[in-house]
Amino acid sequence: MKVLLTGSFGNVGMSTLEELLRQGHAVRCFDLKTRTNVRAARRLRRRYGDQVEVMWGDLRRLQDVAAAVRDQDVVIHLAFIIPKLSHTGVESETQPDWAREINVGGTRNLIQAMKALPHSPRLLFASSYHIFGRTQHLPPPRTVADPPQPIEHYSRHKIECEEMIRQSGLTWAILRLAATLPIAIQLDRGMFDVPLDNRMEFSHTRDVGRAFANAVSSEEVWGKTLLLGGGPRCQLFYRDIVNGVLDAMGIGALPDEAFGTIPFPTDWVDTSESQRILQYQQRTFDDYVRDMLALVGPKRHLIRLFRPLVRRWLLRRSHYFHVAHSGWQGKVAVVAGASGGIGAEIARRLAREGLRVVLVARRRDRLEALAAEIRESGGEALVITADLAEEGERVRVLETVRDTYGAADVLINSAGLGWYGLGTAMPWALARQMIEVNISAAAHLTLLFLRQMKTRGQGHVINIGSVVGSLPSQGVALYSATKSFLDAFTTVLHRELRGTDVHASVVRPGAVSTEFYDVAARQSGGLRIPVERLAVQPAAVADRVWDVLQRPHRKVYVPRWLAFVPWVEPVFGWLLDLIGAPLLRRQLSHHAVKS
User: Fold this and answer.
1) Are 410 and 459 in contact (CB under 8 A)?
2) Would you say the pTM of this structure is higher than 0.85?
3) Which residues on adjacent β-strands are paired with residue 413?
4) DSSP H or E stretch at residue 335
5) Separation between Cα atoms, residue 179 and residue 208, nearest integer Å
6) What SS3 class is residue 509?
7) Tens digit of pLDDT at every position of the chain (595 positions)
8) Alpha carbons 334 and 397: distance in angstroms, whole number
9) Which listed residue, 30, 271, 443, 480, has the most CB atoms within 10 A of its CB?
10) Are 549 and 460 in contact (CB under 8 A)?
11) CB 509, CB 467: distance < 8 Å
């Protein structure tokens, strides 16, 4: 048969590809043209020749997908953006809109292209048992009839794709995969996210590849949703899996505190129906361990020789071990301006690091949603709805924190208001509000909480400034001035506090990708700030805030290379005097024409 395989060069993709070729099918590989994928394609061509056709493309482009599905008998759809299950670089979870374009949008394109053909191919879709959510409190095994209760964007995307496929009118089958570990020497920090007592059904990647290949030729599989797993011999606890690999490598079991405690969306599953139809369960977890040892080869002797160093290196990559030994566990952080953007991301990061976060802003619905997210991940969050432009509200925030926790260890001032346009065109009501939020609120909260911190002898205030605080910029006259105030205010406090365990710091980001630009453009008489295309993600600012808490500095920049900005004004201020205003007027004129 002619088989199109999307996501051909991933873990399950390579296993499926090899089994399809072994069974004599002609395979068309469809994947992104990356350096890694190109290398894999060259190896395949050398080994299998014309039996493999490689077609590069993007699921988001309908024309690419339409060309790929042409003249195929079966489409196996594996390509999907997955969670890396780590606290940094989590793709489908930190960039859900982008992931959805590929996961859901790509599947929609695939269905549309298949339906447009005179004779539509059959569709095999790889789903996941993650859709069942957290089920450790339920008696196993999970069955196809169990209700989906997704807890992540990835599994929500899977459910949405399943429903699209069922309603498509195509001939389809859906295979929900259990844990399918790659045979590769790589460390995913997410290995520490799974509690050691979590039930997890192991499925050997080559067995999963065999299941998909067997499904291509099966007549009974179509119209069914099946669970794929290793079977009763592969129903283990995560402790058995991770310790089995570490022991075989000579590393030995890591301490329990290196692993998470929140139940993870894995379980044991009923695979009796899938095994009856597809006859794919051949290998056990012991086979996987042998495969890994063969891959490592003689290097395992070096691992044993340097066992203490290897264990230390592994533990440094455990977020949970770090939190347990960081000294920040249980500390209290007040985040002003936590309803979105930088503030929300800082709150998430500090909660992950073990701090109890106090979320302060005007929009209760957003704060409650963020608090629920933090609690769902095992953190602690308190919501205080307050308009920080009001002096009495700021005092109430302090009193609420004092009554609930006694005192705060960290204050993050991230609330801020922006506006872009000629300074003389800025409405005074908006200017006054910006002064109240950007200056008065930050200064008042800082002084209120610093007094408590000095009394206790410890604490840290971090103000979120901006590079424009040291580079007055056309279009953001008052905003630049407010950030200049924060720079000077924080600098003086830092010097006054020197020699104590109380610290004051300012974080100076450049453009950050948040709703700040949308809000600024909606303000009376305002325009969209033009540097948005240069923006970094809010997580980058949150990372720097965490760095500063661990190693206090007076000022830091995001990204770091912006540290040169304070030198621009003294050296090139004359040039900005010449070109700044004409550039702004040109933009304003262009905006007026478009309007």
Assistant:
1) yes
2) no
3) 336, 463
4) strand 332-336
5) 10
6) strand
7) 999 999 999 999 999 999 999 999 999 999 999 888 999 888 888 888 878 899 999 999 999 999 999 999 999 999 998 886 433 344 667 678 888 999 999 999 999 999 999 999 999 999 999 999 999 999 999 999 999 999 999 999 999 999 999 999 999 999 999 999 888 876 677 889 999 999 999 999 999 999 999 999 999 999 999 999 999 999 999 999 999 999 998 999 999 999 999 899 999 999 999 999 999 999 999 999 999 999 988 888 888 899 999 999 999 888 889 888 878 889 999 999 999 889 999 999 999 999 999 999 999 999 999 999 999 888 999 999 999 999 999 999 999 999 999 999 999 999 888 877 777 888 898 899 999 999 999 999 999 999 999 999 999 999 999 988 887 777 788 989 999 999 999 999 999 999 899 999 999 998 887 765 565 555 555 555 555 556 788 889 999 999 999 899 999 999 888 888 787 777 766 666 666 566 656 555 554 434 4
8) 9
9) 30
10) yes
11) yes
Residue in the structure block whose two tokens are 């014309």: 50
SS3 280: coil
Domains defined along the chain, listed by start:
2-185+202-236+266-286 (3.40.50.720), 329-569 (3.40.50.720)
Active-site residue (options: 154, 280, 479, 557):
479
